């Protein structure tokens, strides 16, 4: 297998983008990544587009075929990748494998979603279509509902408390407030969302024991990457990032079938594969973007990836170990919690943020000093399809 | 403009006496303190300056809500509406939201509008709750008739309380009224109506001083900026 580099990264600000169509957003992010790659007029061999809801929400399918034409990248190969909220990382994986196999040399990967043109109820229902069609969906389960049950079990088994969840929420919103690409650029205050009796209105229960600010927003947004062979990256002459390892694993579709629903086996297995391929261990990671669609997931994933022992992730967050400057900075971008979660775009956006970190391009208040190695976890379904990437900085 | 006071007294509708709304303060999600107090008629010209930029924002029906609110406040200022009142939210002296309504009679209130000038902090929810509190707790009314002009309003009022559908026309036109009865209010109150009284004097002094406003561009950005909160 050939090594694969990332030479272009682009993102548009996440949020509510009434003025843009899904195709607009995908195109804007793609152009940013292509400009960043500096390939000039050279086209790419293939375009992989990650999207989950175009068919349902925009009544648009064959999105990659449309985008490749819009970007004047014809006759590049083009495919749309749908893998729920892990669509983004799946598209990156497909691009990676295409180059590693020797079939393509340059690939554009773009992920995006337009979720805000429907009501919150319809968006929640759309996301819930990834649940089991007979055993879960007909009974009205939603992803926040699943996360609430998961949190309750995690609290009982590992002693996670609302203080632990609060630490994630405050940290990620504080970082999101510094990120111009974040959907919710707003700091939260402990008094306002937790201590004060007024918090009952400011931060109401959404899916017990999770509250409003334990959940990521529903977002519009897109992000893109240009992948290529290391030989091409070297010629460009600026710092680039290589994909040192990746892993993907699956788990049962229904939560009820899992021997221990608090055990996110697919996260553990995906991370183990990525670490094995990269010949690294969790303590080698300098910065991580974890899939915190719900605050509990940042805690659980930080344990299942191996940064902390089971039951220690929440305490580590409270102790500041996952802040910028801490032992392992997690979700310095603000994570899904603040940057937002356009489902098809998230996995790509996580890697874009890590690429910026490893190229040392971020402002001081968001840059992990001397970051060399980063990790992402993109969590599909409720942990039934998970991808983990490990990226490494290369200084030519 | 010259005013013929003899004719004016005919044109001005009679007013039902209203007790004052006691100001309260609320800690918002970002830690800022919002003071909710009753506006006086002399505040109207200043309030309208903040409503004006919202007239041209289509997002979330700000245009229609603002246009109607503008007219209602102007009617109050010019003595052309019966028994109207206005409450406003201020943070650091800055106007961040406005609610208004009026009394249909001693027992029935008519909710008019809720306009949040800063977003993402549940300012509209807090102000709407204050309006309900004014009608039911302080004016002793039995019920309030309410309609929503935006999906957000429908979610916040009709669904969250939840309000009771009626066939009673609402004077804003459109759909039939929903009703907040005392019974529904008392059930919803623990989770939707908050605030501390009395407001410390220094905060009241700040709120009662000349009302501060964000500039038009800032207001437009907050409500309809690219990010959209």
General description of the model:
Chain A is an alpha/beta fold and 396 residues long. Chain A has a domain at 4-119 and 218-236: Thiolase/Chalcone synthase (Peroxisomal Thiolase, Chain A, domain 1), CATH 3.40.47. Chain A contains 15 helices and 11 strands. Chain A has helices spanning 22-37, 54-58, 63-70, 87-100, 120-128, 143-158, 162-176, 190-195, 199-202, 230-236, 265-278, 295-304, 313-318, 335-339, 343-358; strands at residues 4-11, 46-50, 77-81, 106-114, 205-207, 210-211, 220-229, 240-250, 287-289, 373-380, 385-394. In chain A, the strands form 2 sheets. In chain A, strands 3-2-4-7-1-8-11-10-9 form a 9-stranded mixed β-sheet, with helices on both faces. In chain A, strands 5-6 form a two-stranded antiparallel ribbon. Chain A is globular. Chain B has 229 residues and is an alpha+beta fold. Chain B has a single domain, classed as Gcn5-related N-acetyltransferase (GNAT) (Aminopeptidase, 3-Layer(aba) Sandwich), CATH 3.40.630.30. Chain B is 37% helix and 23% strand. Chain B has an 8-stranded mixed β-sheet, with helices on both faces. In chain B, a hairpin with a 6-residue loop joins β7 (164-169) and β8 (176-181). Chain B is globular and about 50 Å long. The mean pLDDT of chain B is 93. The chains are: A alpha/beta (396), B alpha+beta (229).
Based on the coordinates given, report the CATH architecture of chain B.
3-Layer(aba) Sandwich
- Biggest pleated-sheet summary of chain A: 9 strands, mixed
Describe the biggest sheet of chain B?
8 strands, mixed
Computed Rg of chain B: 17 Å
Helix content of chain B: 25-40%
What's the CATH class of the domain at 4-119 and 218-236 in chain A, please?
A: Alpha Beta
Task: List descriptors.
A: 396 residues, alpha/beta, 9-stranded mixed β-sheet, two-stranded antiparallel sheet, 19% strand, globular, B: 229 residues, alpha+beta, Aminopeptidase, 8-stranded mixed β-sheet
Question: Could you give the topology of this structure?
Answer:
The complex is a heterodimer of chains A (about 400) and B (about 230).
Chain A: E1 4-11, H1 22-37, E2 46-50, H2 54-58, H3 63-70, E3 77-81, H4 87-100, E4 106-114, H5 120-128, H6 143-158, H7 162-176, H8 190-195, H9 199-202, E5 205-207, E6 210-211, E7 220-229, H10 230-236, E8 240-250, H11 265-278, E9 287-289, H12 295-304, H13 313-318, H14 335-339, H15 343-358, E10 373-380, E11 385-394
Parallel strand pairs in A: 2-3, 2-4, 9-10
Antiparallel strand pairs in A: 1-7, 1-8, 4-7, 5-6, 8-11, 10-11
Helix pairs in contact in A: 4-15, 7-12
Chain B: H1 5-11, E1 24-27, E2 33-38, H2 44-51, H3 62-77, E3 84-91, E4 94-103, E5 108-116, H4 123-138, E6 143-146, H5 151-159, E7 164-169, E8 176-181, H6 182-192, H7 201-208, H8 216-224
Parallel strand pairs in B: 5-6
Antiparallel strand pairs in B: 1-2, 2-3, 3-4, 4-5, 6-8, 7-8
Helix pairs in contact in B: 2-3, 4-6
């Amino acid at each position: 297998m050939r090594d694969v580099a990332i030479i272009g990264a682009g993102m548009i600000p996440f949020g509510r983008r009434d003025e843009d169509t899904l195709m607009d957003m995908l195109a804007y992010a793609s152009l940013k990544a292509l400009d960043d790659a500096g390939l000039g007029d050279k086209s790419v061999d293939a375009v992989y587009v990650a999207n989950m809801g175009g068919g349902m929400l925009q009544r648009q399918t064959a999105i990659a075929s449309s985008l490749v034409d819009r970007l004047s990248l014809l006759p590049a190969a083009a495919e749309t990748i749908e893998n729920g909220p892990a669509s983004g990382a799946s598209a990156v994986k497909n691009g990676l494998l295409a180059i590693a196999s020797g079939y393509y040399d340059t690939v554009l990967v773009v992920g995006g979603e337009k979720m805000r043109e429907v009501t919150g109820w319809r968006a929640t229902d759309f996301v819930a279509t990834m649940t089991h069609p007979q055993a879960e969906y007909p009974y009205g389960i939603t992803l926040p509902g699943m996360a609430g049950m998961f949190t309750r079990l995690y609290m009982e088994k590992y002693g996670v408390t609302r203080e632990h969840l609060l630490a994630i929420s405050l940290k990620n919103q504080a970082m999101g407030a510094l990120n111009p690409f974040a959907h919710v650029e707003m700091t939260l205050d402990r008094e306002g969302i937790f201590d004060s009796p007024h918090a009952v209105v400011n931060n109401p229960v959404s899916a017990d024991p999770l509250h409003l600010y334990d959940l990521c927003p529903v977002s519009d947004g897109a992000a893109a990457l240009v992948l290529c062979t290391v030989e091409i990256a070297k010629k460009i002459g600026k710092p680039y990032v290589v994909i040192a390892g990746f892993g993907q694993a699956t788990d049962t579709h229904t939560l009820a079938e899992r021997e221990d629903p608090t055990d996110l086996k697919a996260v553990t297995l995906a991370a183990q594969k990525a670490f094995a391929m990269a010949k690294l261990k969790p303590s080698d990671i300098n910065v991580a973007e974890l899939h915190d669609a719900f605050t509990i997931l940042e805690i659980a994933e930080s344990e299942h990836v191996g940064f902390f022992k089971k039951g220690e992730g929440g305490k580590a967050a409270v102790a500041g170990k996952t802040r910028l400057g801490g032992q392992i900075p997690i979700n310095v971008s603000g994570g899904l919690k603040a940057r937002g979660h356009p489902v098809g775009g998230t996995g790509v956006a996580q890697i874009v943020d890590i690429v910026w970190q490893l190229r040392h391009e971020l402002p001081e208040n968001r840059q992990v000093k001397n970051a060399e190695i980063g990790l992402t976890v993109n969590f599909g379904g409720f942990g039934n399809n998970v991808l983990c990437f490990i990226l490494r900085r290369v200084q030519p | 403009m010259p005013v013929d006071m003899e004719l004016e007294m005919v044109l001005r509708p009679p007013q039902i006496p209203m007790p004052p709304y006691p100001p309260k303060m609320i800690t918002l999600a970002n830690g800022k303190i919002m003071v909710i107090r009753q506006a006086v008629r002399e505040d109207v010209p200043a309030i309208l300056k903040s409503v004006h930029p919202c007239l041209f924002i289509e997002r979330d029906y700000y245009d229609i809500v603002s246009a109607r609110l503008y007219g209602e406040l102007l009617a109050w200022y010019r003595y052309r509406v019966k028994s109207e009142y206005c409450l406003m939210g201020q943070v650091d002296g800055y106007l961040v939201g406005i609610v208004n309504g009026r009394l249909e009679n001693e027992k029935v209130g008519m909710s008019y509008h809720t306009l949040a000038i800063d977003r993402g902090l549940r300012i509209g929810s807090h102000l709407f709750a204050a309006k309900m509190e004014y009608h039911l707790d302080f004016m002793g009314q039995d019920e309030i008739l309410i309609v929503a002009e935006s999906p957000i309003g429908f979610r916040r009022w009709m669904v969250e309380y939840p309000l009771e559908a009626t066939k009673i026309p609402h004077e804003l036109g459109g759909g039939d009224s929903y009703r907040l009865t005392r019974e529904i209010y008392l059930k919803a109150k623990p989770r939707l109506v908050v605030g501390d009284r009395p407001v410390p004097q220094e905060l009241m002094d700040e709120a009662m001083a000349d009302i501060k406003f964000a500039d038009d561009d800032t207001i437009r950005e907050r409500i309809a900026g690219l990010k959209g909160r």
